[in-house]
Write a structure and sequence with these properties.
Elements (H helix, E strand, L loop, with lengths): L17 H11 L6 H20 L3 H24 L5 H26 L3 H28 L22 H25 L11 H7 L4 H13 L6 H8 L2 H12 L2
Helix pairs in contact: 1-3, 2-3, 2-4, 3-8, 4-5, 4-6, 5-6, 5-9
């Protein structure tokens, strides 16, 4: 997990694309290709996966969802190897993720013709799970001098870094807060004191990483391939119960 110093990294089940992402980033270092270009490529990969779902080409769907996860890691890696972090890239990445998540789920709903309310609940569940994972990860990054373009509480428009437009940062920040604000507030209110925690054991963080988007997309891919597409929504709805369990464990560990 490159967003943390090496000694503080944990085994991230959601970050399986990182090794390939690093190779991609190194090959693109000092070229004309920017992290934004890589972000656009993962957006394209996500929509290709959606097209494959519509046609029920589930092995191809899995390929493009996993490729999307790899490229999702590669844009940040490229920013780091070129030493050009940006809020524009950070917010564009997150906004693209939530929009793709919605379209992926609504496409699965269209193909399976299940109850629409299950799709909405699954979307909410996936976003809350991902928010808890990101919340704890950002706390660790800030504590151990890791990547700091993400903040524990996103309640103020950040000042643009060198090489990026303040207007772009402002627009993307507002879009981010519109799409993620309610999920951030729910998780923060469920665990307001998380930032004061002394311990985030590696095994605990590995368990939390099952809430990461990469792992979620892997689960969706596997369920599509093995013919369990009708149970995808129910799985994520049920798995959201672990949000309370993980928060409770975090509080017990730091009691």
């Amino acid at each position: 997990m490159s967003k943390l110093p090496k000694k503080n990294q944990f085994f991230d089940l959601s970050d399986y694309g990182r090794p390939i992402a690093k190779v991609i980033a190194k090959s693109l270092k000092d070229t004309s290709i920017t992290p934004i270009h890589v972000t656009i490529s993962f957006i394209i990969s996500g929509f290709l996966a959606i097209l494959c779902i519509l046609n029920q080409y589930y092995w191809a769907t899995a390929f493009f969802l996993i490729l999307k996860s790899i490229l999702d890691a590669a844009d940040g890696e490229l920013a780091r190897v070129n030493k050009k972090p940006s809020y524009t890239g950070r917010y564009l990445d997150s906004v693209s993720d939530i929009i793709l998540n919605f379209f992926i789920l609504i496409t699965i709903w269209y193909v399976t013709q299940g109850p629409f309310v299950y799709m909405i609940l699954a979307f909410i569940a996936i976003q809350l799970q991902g928010t808890l994972y990101n919340y704890y990860c950002v706390i660790l990054r800030n504590r151990y001098n890791g990547d700091k373009t993400s903040r524990i509480i996103e309640n103020q428009i950040p000042i643009a870094l060198n090489g990026e437009s303040q207007r772009s940062v402002t627009i993307l920040f507002k879009l981010y807060t519109l799409l993620y604000g309610v999920f951030d507030k729910i998780i923060y209110n469920l665990d307001k004191n998380a930032a004061e925690s002394k311990y985030f054991p590696n095994l605990f963080m590995t368990a939390i990483s099952t809430f990461g988007l990469g792992f979620q997309l892997l689960i969706i891919s596997i369920m599509l391939i093995v013919g369990l597409e009708n149970y995808i929504f129910l799985f994520f709805i049920a798995y959201s119960l672990f949000i309370i369990l993980f928060i409770g464990i975090r509080k017990i560990i730091n009691h």
